[in-house]
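Quick question: what would this complex look like in 3D?
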Amino acid sequence: MRPARVRAAGWGWHHAPRTRWALRGLDFEIDPGERVLLLGASGSGKSTVLQALAGVLGGSEEGESAGELLIDQRPATESQGRVGLVLQDPDSQVILERVGDDVAFGCENLGVPREEIWPRVRHALAEVGLDVALDRSTTQLSGGQKQRLALAGVLAMRPGLILLDEPTANLDPAGVAEVRDAVARVLESTGATLMVVEHRVDVWLPLVDRVIVLSPDGALLADGAPEDVLQSRGGELAELGVWVPGHPPAVSLRVSAPGARVLGTRDLTVGRSVAFAANGFVREMPDLEFHEGTSTAITGPNGSGKSTLGLTLAGLLPRIAGTVSASGTLRDGASEHPIDWRSRELLTRIGTVFQEPEHQFLRSTVREELAVGPRALKLSSAEIAARIDELLQRLRLDALADANPFTLSGGEKRRLSVATILATRPRVLVLDEPTFGQDSRTWAELLGLLGELVDEGKAIIAMTHDRRFVDTFADREVLL
Amino acid sequence: MTHPFSRINPVAKLGAALLLAACLVLTVDWVSAGTALLLELAGFPFLGIGARRFWLRTLPVWVAAPLTGITILLYGRPSGTIYWEWFAVRISDGSLELALATMLRVVAIGLPAVVLFITVDATDLADGLAQVWRLPSRFVLGALAAFRLVGLFANDWRYLELARRARGVGDAGRIRRIPGQVFALLVLAIRRGSKLAVAMEARGFGGPIPRTWARESRFEMGEWGTLITGLMVGMIAIAAAVGTGHWNFIVG
């Protein structure tokens, strides 16, 4: 296997239904074996560049291209097998049921003879450090393992160019390190050319020797050695939402003082039925108390029951044993246990922001989406309109009021999912991984917003892996 | 240690079940179905399926058969002595015999279909369909990959349910919420599906290069044996029906 050379000459692309070019006039040349970190604001077309290089952007019905994009002198669209792509979402790129078959899939498609496939599969799995049986079920792997599986699948194809599209955005800190180390080993032994898109610069900085930056309108903004680019453009990049070391996002300090107890647990055991998770589980939890005007971060490794605890506290999932009880101000006439409340009673009491915003969208426009809760409360239409307008403005969604929630970017979806909950003004907010995969700009906005809510006297409970979030925002950390 | 039968190519199992079913749907009489059922029950213990697993998996067949039987008993075309009559319901000699024949037939076709497939792995079946039956690999592998997403959909469904409660619209009846929730699941399914399609394409799926197969799907003695056994059971059942004069060809 020989490392690939990449050349873009005046290359551009626009998606079929849109008039604006997503990318235009890109010129760069990447030498064989170079390791490039591709940066830019969300929506600047970083993923599009990777998909184009991988030859999966689609034909003329998907969009229109300009200029040239070459891999070893050949158009990227004809370079099957020279390029391997690992995507962001671990669940959506597992293809087959057994580990060995999944890794072999790419080789089969490239017409590699059978007797050569299995040695390649074993070698690739060893390279990424995935020490599991070939017939192990892929559904039982953790997020970090799934990403390494995808990397092994790419590696077995012996590509000269490896492309990584935010491969660690959805992983916990342990998973991030696993994947980064596996990539380092792979590059060490293969010498392949690398291009990685990721807005957490510190994760990949030790591995890359060049940084290319795209401007928000899809043109080339900077290109050079990492230290030069980060030094000269650091502030600019941080403003675009890139996590640049030495440029922490600014978050204003909070002023709240804790108020009355709103929610507490005693001898609580949480769990999920077998039907819910792939394998049901049960966990005992420490006794917890939550007060007005405080923020609590619940941390712990994957599988420690953070999400399950959150859903149980939020009155969505029945408890296995013990109690979750609401205090007087939060109860406000309803029964003691949140799980016994009616769906409508939850609205003004406890709001839940799910990890996957898409799970909680119900309507076809942003405005309609925000009206769901207030309508269920039977508020007057003037009141509903006032609340929606205020939220749209506060969360910078006003330009998107008529857009379909599913078409928003990751950061916008997150803001909308928080806004839908705020529309009914609950006293307690439960958020599951609110900062997962967010760029630094959305991150700072989110923290600013949550800070204001705590100052107003709300209680915030967040399940999170985000160390920075815990350190800057939480009054208290509960480690499970 | 896996039982030898679990290693038989799934397409052979599928073929055997289809051949047997083809023989049994030609006639409606209790002799052929009964004969087939006896032969099947004699054969099942040798397939390496535990009793517990057998009864658990075949439960739907045991429930469905009497239900179809009762329906035909009450509403089947009457002939001979009529024992009981009430509005459209007529129990007669003819409907009694037809009910018995149908019930046995459901069991005789349903049991082997379930039993043969207990030991089938979806990936092996896809290998067989593409390599032995030469179905287009794009279609077979696409379906296989999509099938794997079903587990994720089950999880999505539960979250959609919780999210509706959290959004304040969970008080309406469960049944009334279903259409909206199905639509939401469909949207999620399409999004997951298109992401998976990109992942597959990025690994060269659907490219111009002729595909190879990492796992060879064999069709050898054991597979032929399985097919022939299925056909034999069907033929013996037909012979028994013709021999005893119960043959009742379904057309005409």
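Answer marked as accepted. The mean pLDDT of chain A is 89.
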